[in-house]
Structure formats: structure tokens, C-alpha cells
From TrEMBL:
Residues 131-266 form the GFO/IDH/MocA-like oxidoreductase domain. Residues 6-119 form the Gfo/Idh/MocA-like oxidoreductase N-terminal domain. This is Oxidoreductase. InterPro entries: Gfo/Idh/MocA-like_OxRdtase_N, Gfo/Idh/MocA_oxidrdct_glycsds, GFO_IDH_MocA-like_dom, NAD(P)-bd_dom_sf.
């Protein structure tokens, strides 16, 4: 690949703005066309972000200057659109989750391998300087050997603010498949493949009401558990406990802690590209029952800050450099397998063995600079 690499979008909903803003600032890529079921919406986004062309999905897939398709469609059609892009000879960057079932998602990866194209899968927050600085600190031994992790995402629910939230409560979403990819991708990046999963789940309401936007007052069904608690056991021996909820009056976003033999570290919100990184060392003694305050050691974030689209950029550079990219389709598939296993465990009440594995996730070099032309 030589740059700038041509990019086309399929789907220009809410999340497309941040992708377009960021990709427009990377000299190694160039957005050439936007496609959507609503062509007028594609046109409006193209005019807003200075993209020369717009049209339908077919227009994007047939465009001769498109090397990579960004798939921002709803989860239910992620595999379908990605498969069509692969058949058109395009590399794919897809929003999470990679797919909704193991069979079609695994087939997508086989198709891409046979076609000689790559699949990249969100989230790419794990490439951000916040998570990467923390990962390097853990690898350097600041907390000794990692033993277990705790993560949490709690909110009252996206129906409070999203103008069209029904898809977030449908099959293929809920807090597990909507927010879980951020947390489980981070855990797998740190600890490697998950061996087995146990989970419990429930939902607060059978129906919810849209609270914001032009559809406020509209009632829609809740199809999936809206609170999930998941235990993951990793092949390397670590464990993690993860809470994911759309039912919590207490708002807690981005809790991500790793506890080791010599200390504990707080990582940034895995849905963000930056954040606080700090650790404490294990106490040596307690005098007269006086616990006192623990001393936090702050870690300065290293690397260039940017946002969504970073994973796509890493993928196109990796193609040119003939190296693995970080947020691979295989990582996306393993995380999907973990989440589907959690669903199955919640239904059966038993641990579920995770069949898939994934290669160790590469660490991003400190000097990775999205704003420098390299292709």
C-alpha cells in the first residue's frame, strides 16, 4: 500500500462524526466516499466533513479508489456488509461487535484470508496512549505478576439520551455486546486468551421508553439482559470480574483495575484513548490498626493522543510494513466468543469453555504518530 489509502464508509450514523474528524487528520488515509441507506444523510455528512462523493453501499463497494471499507452499520448487518466488502476485494474496518454469531463471523474471517484482505475490528481504544502506557507499565513489573482484574460499566441506560436506542436493547447488543468489547478486548490484550467463562444476567424492564430526541415517548421492547456479571478465567492463569449494566442509578464508567503480586494499578476507561494511570504498592505492615491513606504513584501518559480510526490507521500501516495489526479480526472474534459464552453461561448456570484462542496482542510503539505521513 502507498498512501494516502482510500477509505469508504458504509453507514454514517452518530458515531461517523468522530471517525470522519479523526481520519481527516491522518495523512496516510483519505476518505473518498460515504454510503448509507439514507443517501441524503450520506450527502449531508459528506458536505459537513469535506468528502467529495456520497451514495449507496453499492457505490462505496464499487469505487475504484476505495481500498478499505469502514463498516459503521448496525450490529445485525456487520457480517453481511463486511462480507460484501471482502468479496469486492476491500480491506475492512468494522465497528464492534465483529458479528453476532460464531458461524457467520468465522466464515467472514475465512473469506478475508482467502481473498488476501485484512479485517480490523473495533474497539481501537486499546491502541490509545492511555491503555498502552498502562500496558507497558504492567509489562515492566510495577505490580509484580498480574493475578486478577476488576472492571465495571454501570449506567441507567442509553434510552435516557440516545435518539434511537432500540437497537442497543435488541439481540446482539445490550450492555454485554455493546460495551463488553471495550473491557474484554482490554483484558485479552493484557492477559491473552480466555479459557472459560461464568455469568449471570437479568433485566429490569421488559419495555423502555425513548427519553430524548424526535422519538421521545416511543416505547420499544427489551430483548436481552440489561445487567450482566461475568467471570473470566484466562489460559495464563489470571481471572477477572466484569459488571456491565444499563440498570444502575449509580453511574460508574470505565472502572478497570489490575491487581498483582506486588501492587494494584488503575487503567483508563477502555472506552477512551486517555485517562489516569496510577498504582499502589502492597502494604508491608499495619501499625496499631491505623490503615491510613495508601500512596498512589502516578504514571505519565506516553504517546500521541488521537481517537477512533486509530485502529484503521494501524491496519493500513501494518499492511504496508507486512506486520500484524493490533485490533485484528481474530481478536474481535475471540472477544465475541467470550461474550457469547457469557450469554450461554447465564442461560445454563454453568461455566462455558471458550473454544477460540488469539495470538498475543502487539504493544503499540511509543513513537507511533498518526499525524505523520509514512506511506
Amino acid at each position: 500500500m502507498t498512501g494516502p489509502v482510500g477509505v469508504g464508509f458504509v453507514g454514517v450514523g452518530v458515531i461517523s462524526d468522530t471517525y470522519l474528524e479523526n481520519l481527516g487528520s491522518y495523512p496516510d488515509v483519505r476518505v473518498v466516499i460515504l454510503g448509507d441507506l439514507d443517501v441524503d444523510r450520506a450527502k449531508a455528512q459528506a458536505e459537513k466533513h469535506g468528502v467529495a462523493e456520497w451514495g449507496t453501499t453499492d457505490d462505496v463497494l464499487a469505487h475504484p479508489d476505495v481500498d478499505v471499507v469502514v463498516n459503521l452499520t448496525i450490529p445485525a448487518v456487520h457480517v453481511e456488509i463486511s462480507s460484501r466488502a471482502v468479496a469486492a476485494g476491500k480491506h475492512v474496518w468494522t465497528e464492534k461487535p465483529l458479528g453476532l454469531d460464531r458461524e457467520s463471523t468465522a466464515e467472514l474471517l475465512r473469506q478475508a484470508d482467502a481473498a488476501g484482505v485484512r479485517i480490523g475490528s473495533a474497539p481501537d481504544t486499546l491502541l490509545g496512549p492511555g491503555f498502552q502506557t498502562a500496558k507497558r507499565a504492567i509489562q515492566s513489573g510495577v505490580i509484580g505478576e498480574p493475578m486478577f482484574a476488576s472492571t465495571a460499566f454501570q449506567t441507567v441506560g442509553p434510552d435516557l439520551w440516545h435518539p434511537s436506542p432500540a437497537f442497543l436493547f435488541a439481540q446482539g447488543a445490550g450492555p454485554l455486546l455493546d460495551m463488553g468489547p471495550y473491557y474484554f478486548s482490554g483484558l485479552v490484550s493484557l492477559f491473552g486468551s480466555v479459557d472459560r467463562v461464568a455469568a449471570v444476567g437479568r433485566k429490569k424492564l421488559e419495555e423502555r421508553t425513548i427519553q430524548a430526541g424526535p422519538n421521545a415517548g416511543t416505547v420499544f421492547p427489551v430483548e436481552v439482559p440489561t445487567t450482566m456479571q461475568v467471570i473470566t478465567a484466562f489460559e495464563a492463569g489470571q481471572q477477572a470480574a466484569s459488571l456491565l449494566s444499563f440498570d444502575s442509578a449509580l453511574e460508574r464508567h470505565g472502572v478497570f483495575e489490575v491487581h498483582g503480586t506486588e501492587g494494584s494499578i488503575v487503567l483508563p476507561d477502555p472506552n477512551q484513548f486517555e485517562g489516569r494511570i496510577a498504582y499502589v504498592k502492597a502494604r508491608k505492615s499495619i501499625s496499631d490498626g491505623n490503615w491510613g491513606e495508601q500512596e498512589w504513584i502516578e504514571i505519565e501518559q506516553e504517546g500521541t493522543l488521537t481517537g477512533r480510526g486509530l485502529g484503521l490507521l494501524d491496519m493500513v500501516r501494518a499492511i504496508a510494513e507486512d506486520r500484524p495489526h493490533v485490533a485484528t479480526g481474530e481478536l474481535g472474534y475471540h472477544v465475541l466468543d467470550v461474550m457469547l459464552s457469557a450469554q450461554e453461561s447465564a442461560a445454563s448456570g454453568e461455566f462455558v469453555k471458550v473454544a477460540s484462542t488469539v495470538a498475543p496482542v502487539p504493544t503499540v510503539p511509543v513513537d507511533f504518530d498518526p499525524f505523520v505521513a509514512t506511506l
